[in-house]
Amino acid sequence: MKKLFLLAGGLLVALASYAQAPSCCDQPVAEVNNDMALLASNKSFVMLHEEPLPFTYKSAAGEMVKFKTPDGKEANGFLLKAPKETNKWLFVYQEWWGLNDYIKQEAEKLYNDLKDVNVLAIDMYDGKVATTREEASKLVQVPRERLGAIMQGALSYVGPQAQIANVGWCFGGGMSLQSAILGGKQTMGCVIYYGQPEKNIERLKALNTNVLGIFGAKDSGIPPAAVSEFEKNMKEAGKDITIKMYDAPHAFANPSNPGYDKEATADAYQITLNYLKTHLKV
């Protein structure tokens, strides 16, 4: 009888602990900066983005998944699970067009080249994808709270033991940096392709990693002056950053862009891959 009482008492304690354990939906919703939303109100910036060519990609290993977010909703991601169980993860962030097939293809390329790393391309537009500049300039106006909630949901989905690197292009470049900040001690790396830098030095101080920044010298949306300011702010925050500047325009690594630079893209990809392998220790 005594043993039964102790067992019941232990079960109650365990249930109480479980009830008090924070879950995704118990967290306060974080806000992340989205300076791209402000840039999207500038017509000259919008015109920098050539509309993507139609493209369909059939994945060999990926699948769409859903996960809960702390604002009481759900979010989506394109998941590529490593063949062997691992806590190493790469978060991939979309361009301002959305989680389209170009991003899924790039996520799968990274997955195949990194090996033994889980890859999650996170849908920041809740299922919407733009095919025109006008659509993209509207979709990018996601509230800061929703962006933060999606990132928090992704962090909860992969779990507290996950070691996470981040990569993104254009809008996703800025999101990669915001995700790295939000990830705290779980963050192992951050790659920004011509994304909007964080200007708040106090936020940059929260980074748990150095940063690889890849930019175009002919990019009038994220010009070299903005990149220099980013370097200065990172230094003031006590963080290391490596900048690779190519003689190329905005979105030069997107094969659907008429300004696509094949040589610069290949070089940047190899640098990115080496960085991710080093930081994820694979």
Automatic annotation (TrEMBL):
Matching entries from Pfam families are given as:
DLH
Q: Name one GO molecular function term.
A: hydrolase activity
Q: What class of enzyme is it?
A: hydrolase
Q: What are the Dienelactone hydrolase domain coordinates in residue numbering?
A: 82-279
Q: Does the keyword tRNA processing apply?
A: no
Task: State if Cell membrane is listed as a keyword.
Answer: no
The secretion signal range is 1-21
Gene3D superfamilies given for it?
alpha/beta hydrolase (3.40.50.1820)
The EC code for this enzyme is: 3.1.-.-
Q: Which UniProt keywords apply?
A: Hydrolase, Signal
Query: What name does the UniProt record give this protein?
Result: Dienelactone hydrolase family protein
Species assigned in the record: Larkinella insperata
Q: What is the lineage of its organism?
A: Bacteria, Pseudomonadati, Bacteroidota, Cytophagia, Cytophagales
